[in-house]
Request: fold
Amino acid sequence: MGTEVPRGARGRDSGPVFCGVAPEIIEDTLIHLATENEQYVSELPEQAGCFKETRIVEFIFLLAEKWHLDLPTRYQAVELLERFMIKQVEQMWDGRGSTQGPRSSWSSVRDQITNTFVLRLVSCVQLASKLSLHYSRVTSDTALTFLQSIKYSYTKQELLESELAVLNTLQFHINVSTPLAYVELLLEVLGYNGCLLPAKPLHQLCVQLLDLCYLTRETIYDTLLKIALENSTPSKVQIARFLTVKEDFMLLAVGVISTGVFILSPGHWEQAVEHLNCITGITPQSILEFSYAVVRPVVGSTTPEQHRATRSPQDRIPPQK
Reply:
């Protein structure tokens, strides 16, 4: 189940080391992530994102902080819980009794979800911690102590069964890439391509911005949707179609890095956007719009759009047709 390391050893983790990976490995990993992202977006269930609301994400982040888990673990736990809950709801709904009416069936499913939700959330954090190569994993004793502290009485056997329920529901396919992996890989590619940016400070800022995107997900993507459509009241069909944008990890990573560069080193912002466009194929306009949606509540009235307008015409990124 893993053991905890004394707190003194925890301070030794200095985060990722950049510019230490062979270019062929970087290229292969980038292709793999891009392919994985495209496949994920193309197979999205209609309920994608339903279990990423702010309260749930905040709960997981605070729990990860309480247990001194590393950065990838908390994002992995959020994505793991999301995938599990959607699959579980689908299975429960498909297996509902034929003699029950729609309302009573959904009420039964909802009650089952509510009764076990916190337990399943803790199990997802546990499983995510076991995927990490870091120093700390969540033991059964640690998980049970926490559950008891918030008035849930579970046994070790029930905790184990909960972990197995998550694993079985997802057919043991739990080690998937998170947006943080995309961010870190793109930072590595930017450095290799000669984009002169302070890697470690930018990485730290990108993590904070990624947290912001998770915690204020609906606000950011609502702003982005209205910008893209130039319409403050999008239709239900437009909102449904926008789901692929909300779940695009590559776009999220590019937007986070672009925003981070704008805040940390605005003089390099257009260069970074050009590099990100060449690496991912995401248009400068899309990067600009995403950065605007993120940076507006962070830094106020000074936005990438305004910054871009201060440059001479020959220095600007040409608009996409």
Residues 1-12, 309-321 have pLDDT under 50 and may be disordered. The CA atoms of residues 72 and 214 lie 13 Å apart. The two ends are 54 Å apart (CA to CA).
